[in-house]
Amino acid sequence: NAGVMQNPRHLVRRRGQEARLRCSPMKGHSHVYWYRQLPEEGLKFMVYLQKENIIDESGMPKERFSAEFPKEGPSILRIQQVVRGDSAAYFCASSPPFSEQYFGPGTRLTVT
Amino acid sequence: AQTVTQSQPEMSVQEAETVTLSCTYDTSESDYYLFWYKQPPSRQMILVIRQEAYKQQNATENRFSVNFQKAAKSFSLKISDSQLGDAAMYFCAYRSYYNNNDMRFGAGTRLTVKP
Question: What is the pLDDT along chain A (112 residues), one digit of tens a residue?
Fold first, then answer.
């Protein structure tokens, strides 16, 4: 059983471009979570999704950020018109209902 | 709102010695989970140990053990016989028992292991 997969592992974007981060949950997991980690800080919750539904997006910035978890395929975290402050590590976790969250290896986004 | 505090930004320990990392949290809930995660330079988040709040017995995983004091809302991690591979950032985390997505992390403690 493969773990949570995230790609790309590293992503470089210029200011104003779009960033798309992908997360494939573990097999059998229907819940996906996205977290952001700024340098020297802990993980901060962004959004919680189940298949085709956003359950809690209270940690998402109001603008430029969106997330989806379609019926087929990976979960996508999309950041439009990136700015330098978006540079961070973005982690995805997945879980079965009401159980342990398993983390992916993260995507490091660098905005130049 | 639940908050998690790690008051030690950095700690160091001599190889083969024991070190304790501190964590306190604030919550009004009676049922919850507490975790310690390790983040090595690879940045992968690795679950070290987990504690259910309703269990009085402290969790143990090989060289890792916790001191869970529910009344004091304290959850420290003890690493015995420290190894060079233990060097990493360690994050304490709280998760609500009833709200699966409500997971809060502390700011982390960077552990250095000296040979």
Answer: 578 999 999 999 999 999 999 999 999 898 999 999 998 788 899 999 998 899 999 899 989 999 999 988 999 999 999 999 999 999 999 988 777 788 999 999 999 9
Q: Compute the distance between CA of residue B61 and CA of residue A46 in angstroms, rounded to an integer.
A: 30
Whether B70 has its CB under 8 Å from any CB of chain A: the answer is: no
Flag whether residue B8 sits within 8 Å of chain A, measured between CB atoms. Answer: no
Contacts of B28 (CB under 8 A, 6+ apart): none
Quick check: B44 and A43 CB within 8 A?
Answer: no
Q: Could you tell me which chain B residue has the CA closest to the CA of A34?
A: B101
